[in-house]
TrEMBL record:
It holds the Pfam family adh_short. This is NADP-dependent 3-hydroxy acid dehydrogenase YdfG. It comes from the Bacteria. The keyword Oxidoreductase applies. PANTHER family: ALCOHOL DEHYDROGENASE. InterPro entries: NAD(P)-bd_dom_sf, Sc_DH/Rdtase_CS, SDR_fam. Keywords: Oxidoreductase. It comes from Chryseobacterium geocarposphaerae.
Amino acid sequence: MKTILVTGATSGIGKSTAELLAKQGNRIIICGRRNEVLESIKTELSAFTEIFSLKFDVRNLEEVETAINSLPEEWKNIDVLINNAGNAYGLDPLSAGKTDDWDSMIDGNVKGLLYVSKMIIPGMKERNSGHIVNISSIAARQTYANGVVYCATKKAVDVISEGMRLELTEFGIKVTNIQPGAVETDFSLVRFKGDNERAATVYAGYDPLKAEDIADSIAYCVNAPKHVCISDMTIYPTAQAEPRTIYRK
Ligand code: 8X3
């Protein structure tokens, strides 16, 4: 049984991952911005295991520090950190990009991941064990027009994973970088700022991945034997070859 902290656990990949790892008997710290959603997930998952909830926004350093420092003693030794929180905002050319969207993506997907990791890595180093799972994207493998800033943040996640591995391997800490392809969550709804119709077109005419598929992949990495580190994993729906190449019926 491991103590696992999942950021962005209130929806999508984070929620499915927290659920699967809870059902497998791990103790889970679910993190997110929405208290009422956290509490309802906590109630649901408490049927399987011990759950602790932490409300904070990864983009806010002070909130991150206060929340993680507030963990009770028995929850402080985090074995696995799943850096899942992150989002895409907008799909615009650089010349017309909204700087608020850029700030949100850079602050959440890159700086937020760093803030949370900085709080948790020291304990892992002291204990000479731990596992960090960073959720990147296939957008890190192939840049696409209009999504350049999102792609750049995910490329940054790849680089941070690589750097973490260089700095943390000597402490017995594993680092896993996951690159999901098209996963049907509220990802596109957030990207298109609530435009349901436009979001639905992203997943039309083929079988996209489900959040549960990525949860399965993450659980495989988390459950690997102590001497095995799955360093990188890319998961596409069968119909997708790269971000913009999807075969629709
Ligand atoms: C999400 C996948 O292809 O929309 O990270 O960039 S994609």
